[in-house]
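U., I forgot to send this yesterday:
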Amino acid sequence: MPINQPSGQIKLTNVSIVRLRKGGKRFEIACYKNKVLEWRNGVETDLDNVLQINNVFLNVSKGQVAPKDDLQKAFKSEDLNTIVAEILKKGELQVSDKERSNQIDNTHREIATIVAEKCVNPDTKRPYTVTMIEKAISELHMSVKTNRSTKSQALEIIKLLQEKNIIPIARAQMRLRITVPNVKEGKRIREKLLPLVAQTEDENFDGDEYELICAIDPGHYRTISEVLQSETKGKGQLELLSLNDTSEGDMQL
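Result:
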């Protein structure tokens, strides 16, 4: 779409602003609240539903539209959709102090919830409450990032909690049933599987197949699957019995 260059200034209110510095200039677009995140998450794909006005500004609050020459120099394009898409993708969403505080609180809570769902006290195998995880995270004295994946931040926090011994914590183990249709092959493959197993619950060499019921760290699941499939040429079976091998009840403060 060609760049429109309206004369004068455009005044906008009640907007969410996305700002990008590029080519020594600051460029801004005026968006509807919540639509920026929907666009970034792929929920919204129509730019007309994201933008309050189809234009690029040097300063939205002052209604100062970006000159065409500045846009061409910075973005090497005259296509407004291309420019807006780049600002939406790479720009920083400007929010009020109250909104930023709410976002941080929500992100903090979501991260704590993920950690609580994925981890247990290794001594009791019981999960922690979200509140207890939140308190443990606060002792790390680190800031959460609202523009980063909460899952990746949760995994980083799990490692930090372990390294700093804030609380005894470990990833909840997965229970698996591994079946190999030939006992002789099963014994051979067993030697490659056992180093990846945290705990052997039951082994069966009777009949025509080898069966292993075990608990593993989640990080070893893909490797076990690949070993089983390659060594049995796809004939072996891997069954997930439970995602989190935990005891009943939460750890309380």
